[in-house]
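Suppose a colleague, Dr. K., hands you the sequence of a protein chain of 204 amino acids and asks what its three-dimensional shape might be. Before reaching for any lab equipment, you can write down a predicted structure in token form. Begin with the sequence itself:
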Amino acid sequence: MFGMRKVSQAVVGVVVAMSMLSGCSFGWGGDEEKKVSEKKLGDKGTACELPVHFTLATSWKAEAITQATVDRMGPLGHQGPLTPACELDAKPAGNIGFLTVWSGTKGAAAPGGTSRALMKTFVGAENFESNVKFRETKAGGLPATEASYTVTDLAAGEVRPERALAVMTKHGGVVLHLGGLNTGEHKAMLPAFELAEKTLGLTS
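The predicted structure, expressed as tokens, is then:
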């Protein structure tokens, strides 16, 4: 095996030289090729197949939410015209909370609607929300509406900040929602939300 080492090195040397002359990568892939081939959460073959895709923060764990699970959730399985499609758990990254992807095709979520109307409907379906602020923005180049607001948790006796982002696709509306156990956890998880917003795109 080791007797072939010089021959192998010579072959590699020739291939590298040809690659430099022709500009071809010969399949082992440079940085640009990796970027093209890299799958994002939401693409086919990932943990959650969605109308949108985005980069998942390091160590976060994504899990698809089935219709059977939504049915078992009862009223918690709906917020306005949307149902949860994917749950991103921050626990493996050291935080307590979730980034949830909601989707729907009816009402304010029907194709052809606006992200602002969807966002207002989604937030309006929250319990005990206040201090709501909407702003128009871009999410990975897509028109989007972002909302920041607070929710009063009567059981815990505290007020928590929440953030949500709405976009429209040809398959209906999608909302990314970030909660958190408390204000500290919410702030610690914001970079994951901002990463998803920055890298958001439509799946094919």
